[in-house]
Write a structure and sequence with these properties.
The chain has 197 residues and is mainly alpha-helical. The chain is built from ten helices and no strands.
C-alpha cells in the first residue's frame, strides 16, 4: 500500500515536531526528521523547501490560530473573555507539550525563528491585554499597571508547564487540565479583584 502525499507530509511534520521539541532546531537535522518519519530525505525539500520550511509548517499546522481567531473577543465581557483565553492557552500548552517546548526554546534562545513565533503570540496576548484594559475601564478588574497585570496573567497561565521540574515538591495528587485551567482562572480573577466569577 502506497502512502498518500498528505500522509507523508503529516509523518514528516509529526517527526519534526517531536525532534524539534527534544533537541531544538539547531540540534535536529533533516536526516533525523526523515529517519523518524520513515520518509525519503528529498521529500523535505520537495514539500517544505528545507528545514526552515518544515519548522514553519509545524508551527502553522499545530498552533490553533484558526480556533483563536474564530472567537470575537471584543463581543465577550472581559471576565468571560479572560476565562476563555486563559483556558485555551493552558489546554494548548498542556495537550501539545512538544509545540509548547518548541515555542519556549525559540523565545529563550531569541533565535531567528522567534519573530515567526511572536507574530502569533503577540496576537493572543494582545487579546488578553485588550480584555484587561476593557475590564478595568468597566470597573470589573482592579490593577495598577496593565503591563504588570498582563505579565501576571501570562505567568499564571504558563506556570503549569514547569510542574514537571518540581514533582518532588508536590504530593501524589494528579490534576487534569480542566482543574488546572479552572484554578488558574480563579487565581487570576482573585488577583484582578473580581468579586464573583
Amino acid at each position: 500500500m502506497t502512502q498518500t502525499e498528505p500522509d507523508i507530509k503529516m509523518r514528516i511534520l509529526l517527526a519534526a515536531k517531536k525532534l524539534f521539541a527534544q533537541h531544538g532546531y539547531d540540534g535536529t537535522s533533516v536526516r533525523q526528521i526523515c529517519e523518524e518519519a520513515c520518509a525519503n530525505i528529498a521529500l523535505v525539500s520537495y514539500h517544505f523547501g528545507g528545514k526552515e520550511g518544515v519548522y514553519q509548517a509545524v508551527f502553522e499546522h499545530f498552533f490553533p490560530v484558526k480556533e483563536l481567531k474564530s472567537v470575537n473577543f471584543a463581543d465577550l465581557d472581559p471576565i468571560e473573555g479572560i476565562r476563555l483565553l486563559v483556558s485555551r492557552i493552558i489546554r494548548l500548552t498542556y495537550q501539545d507539550r512538544e509545540l509548547s517546548f518548541m515555542i519556549q526554546q525559540e523565545m529563550l534562545l531569541r533565535s531567528p525563528r522567534r519573530q515567526m513565533v511572536m507574530n502569533v503570540l503577540v496576537e493572543v496576548w494582545g487579546q488578553v491585554r485588550s480584555l484587561l484594559l476593557r475590564g478595568k475601564e468597566e470597573g470589573v478588574f482592579s490593577f495598577g499597571s496593565a503591563t504588570n497585570a498582563l505579565v501576571m496573567v501570562m505567568s499564571v497561565a504558563l506556570s503549569h508547564k514547569h510542574m514537571v521540574n518540581f514533582e518532588d515538591v508536590f504530593d501524589d495528587e494528579k490534576t487534569g487540565v480542566d482543574i488546572i485551567a479552572a484554578e488558574a482562572v480563579r487565581f487570576i480573577f482573585l488577583g484582578l479583584g473580581v468579586k464573583e466569577a
